[in-house]
Structure formats: structure tokens, C-alpha cells
């Protein structure tokens, strides 16, 4: 099979898994719910798996792996990378490489997903299906080398698709077809869109608390839905900060969990932005 052909097949598979099945699954689940085919088990499966897999992305892939905001005990690290892999957002080192490229080129031409350059839909999810394989490869070469040194990361890179499928198998085994609909496809629809909203909405709508040279914004709604990642202006101002919510009212579920894990001594070296550096970039004093 030649390379362009296999790339096209890969794009079709991604489109099916990330857009078609979650979209159709969600519409079907809602229609069935109106006819009474929904149980508390379905709702609990959907909510718990959405939160757990999202935390795998925000805590595991994003704050731990990409930004080294903390170091985790090996068991916690394994669980976070496993949950992140179940979210179907790409293998850990691929996710991390693309995200580092976003930080290195935020809202300029080489940004993989900037609404400033190619519009909202491209930044939201269009980039996943239109990215040139060569650009993808270069991103991994430039930003992903260090992740290849980490044996646990390479393990999840190699087995990523199996974990993604486990994310569908678990709700099916617990709740049958309705479990698969709510804990699998509705969960994917919600969790994927919450993460994608950080890349799209949080570079368009919201306010700025800190000076940055990009279009990043703090968005209250995405802050809540994406487990604290919607405080995106804060994040671009201080990428390494373990806490994205930097005011008491900025709800940051991922940050609260890091704080609890630190108290339990399950994570350490939690990075906090020194107060004077925080004050220097603050817009409203
Ligand atoms: Zn951003
Ligand atoms: Zn980041």
C-alpha cells in the first residue's frame, strides 16, 4: 500500500471515529432517551468516563507530560497515561508534540490549530483531518524526541489504539449497547469537543488576565467543561504552572486534583508561579 493511500484511509478512519460515530451515537442516545430507553447507570457511565478520560488528557498528557508541571508516582503516571490514551485524542507523544508546536508558534502561521489563521472550525477539529503527514512527522521530529526516552510513554504510544478501544469496551461490558452509546459515543462527543474548544473558543472568546503575545483567552464555560483548561490565557502566560485557574473563582478541577495528589504524596515537584512573576504579567492590578 503506498503512503498517500494509507494516509487517506487513516483520515477516513479518524473522521469515522471522532466525528461520525460520536455524532450519530449522541443523536441516537437522545432519541432513545426520549422514548424511555435510558437508565441512571447510562448517565453515571457517561459522566464518570467523560471526567476520567478528560483528566487523562488534562492531568496526564497536558500538565504532566508536555509541561512537566509535576512528577507523578509510577502508578499514578500509568493510570493518567492510560486514561488519556482512552480519550482517542492520539498517542501521548504525538499529542504532546503537536501541543508543543502550538506553544512554540501560538497564533502565527506555523500554529497547527489557530483560529486567527484558518478559522474556528479548522482550529476546533478540522486540523486533525487536513494536516499534511509531512508536517505531522516534522512536529514529532522537532518536539517529540524527548518523549521517546520515556519507556512508559513509548509503551502507550505503541498500544494507544488498544486503550482507545478499551474505552469503548468497558461501558459495553457494564451497560450493553446503551452503555456503549452513553459511556462510549456520547462520552467521546462531549470529551472531544471540550478539549477542542480549548484550541478554538479559547483563542477567540473570553478575557485576558495576563499579557501574552497571542490571542489566548480565559473562558469561564470552557474552564468548567474542560476541567480547568479553559483558563487558557493564564496557561499561555505561564505554561508550566500546575494550576490554570489563578484566581480563587477560576474553577480548575485538574488543579484541585493535583493539589490533593500532592497532599497524598502521590505527585511531587508541583510547579507554582512565583508571585512576583505573576504580578509582572498581570494586566489589571
Ligand atoms: Zn492555546
Ligand atoms: Zn499547554
Structure in words:
This protein has 285 residues and is mostly helical. The protein has one domain (3-281). The protein is 67% helix and 1% strand. It contains 12 helices and 2 strands. The protein has helices spanning 3-34, 40-66, 74-86, 92-104, 115-118, 120-130, 133-143, 151-199, 220-225, 232-237, 253-263, 275-281; strands spanning 71-72, 267-268. The protein has a two-stranded antiparallel ribbon. The longest helix is centred in the middle third of the chain and has 49 residues, at 151-199. The model has no long low-confidence stretch (mean pLDDT 96). It binds zinc ion (2 copies). One zinc ion binds at residues 102, 106, 203, 216, 232, 236.
